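Intended use. Records such as the Hemicentin-2 entry shown here are meant for training and evaluating sequence-to-structure methods. They are not intended to support clinical decisions.
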Amino acid sequence: MYRPLSVGHPAEIVCVARGARPPAQISWWLDGEKVTSRITESTAREENLTVSSLVFNPNKHDNQRNLSCRGDNPQVPDSVLEDTWVLDIHFPPELDVKINKQVPVLEGTDVSMTCVVRANPPIAELEWLKDGQSLGPPARRDTRNRTLNIASTSVEHKGRYQCSAINSEGKTFSEPKLLQIHYAPRCHSVRSRVYGVGKTESVSVACEVDASPSDLSFTWALDGAKILASEQYHTNGTRSVATVSPRSPQDYGVLMCWASNVVGRQREPCTFRIIPA
């Protein structure tokens, strides 16, 4: 009975021809192409016996190919006999994660990922991971459902996703696939700071935000109405620093900053209280 072969484990396959006189000549064929290497052959003329051995190194691409041995006697027309084996090559799972939406995705949209599996024999377990951490117990009953669905994506969903699978040949992991989430800016810290400043003093107030992408423009305002001139602040990446120099009571109050990127303007400003020292 033919048995499965495993990738990485060479196997000796023997073909025997009996009864031909003179003894038969044996050749090996793989999907119609003659195999010429790693073959040894012996004959026993008194028994009209030919034995040919092929050392076959299985490759995953050989799965379901036809391996044949042919015996024939050149001195006898139409004497060819052939035995064919449909190769069953076992190999560990080969995995690839496909994100079913153009990346990066906008925050709040739905996204799904598919674990593309190629394995023989079929996988017995499938697991999803994010940044190297399991997203739940492996699926053992329904490994045909190989899709991870994320509804209403948020910043917390960004990261590197993998799938892992097991069959009798081993456990493997896909290459990590980065899920990028684009979102409007938000304050790096929600806490409002208080600055005590004298009328003859100046203070630098730093506004730092999280955003993706990080190509930003900033707007500063005092009490939501008095817009600061561009020369009163400077910006570097996700950080903008304003210089405040109170000269009158109207120069005190709540200083606010907003950042904007291609996704939009941040909903809630970062706030700083400027009070007399």
